[in-house]
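User: Predict the complex with zinc ion.
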Amino acid sequence: MIDYTLAVRLLMEDIVARVPALDHVVPQQVLVFARLGRTSAHGAYAACHSLMLPDSEPAYYFWRDRRTGALSRRSEWFVTRSPEVRVGGRRISHLVSIALPRFCDQTLNDTHKAGVYERGREWMAKLDTIVHELYHVDPHQGGIRRTARVDGSPAGQAHTPAFFREVQRIVREYVGSRPDPAVYEFLTLDFDGLVKRHGGVAGTTFRDFPAFPQRYRERLADQPRGPRAAQIVPLPPRTRRRHFTEADLELRQFLPNSTRRLG
Ligand SMILES: [Zn+2]
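Assistant: Here is the predicted structure with zinc ion placed in the model:
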């Protein structure tokens, strides 16, 4: 069976080593994991999440009385924090998720890449996606290049035309550097092709699949007094985990519509 997330990881290492524009990315601090994304369903092919965003400003939810506009209810105060993921003792700065099998079945027609890459070179669209996620890694702060949402994923305005152009330039620079085809050859096969050749497609996931480490809310120990509201709503009890290590990872096989744990 092909370990798809490992293949992506090794390709990322090669890209980062060959393309100066991405030489700030430390592959050992990027964890690639797989999520289930059906080919027939719409959705992202991949995503990049920063685990290094600072705590959010203290905040609370609130509800207003529709008639008077007064604060009728609010939650307790909280901050939003990043979970900590460590692999081999090293803190992971970014998670990159790959949607399987959808990623493998990406075609040029489905995306803005139709006019960008040569027809019949579908694999370059997949390479573009991988470079795209690496390009989200901020060169300075371990965050997301430009703006990020509170959950650590890139905000919509991160995707400017200049962003897409730079990603395409990096893709061409990488291919032009004559990498060993063995490193990227897995991109040339769609899901069926991979199954035929390797017997199956597997990927690293978190044990509590389909969950994965995400930003969580933490109640402020010292609750500010204000603002006044008729009712203060307690925050729901802690559900999200805060610390993860390699012991929380496992390999799963990905099928067209489901997954199964590999023993
Ligand atoms: Zn993006």
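The first strand starts at residue 2 and ends at 3.
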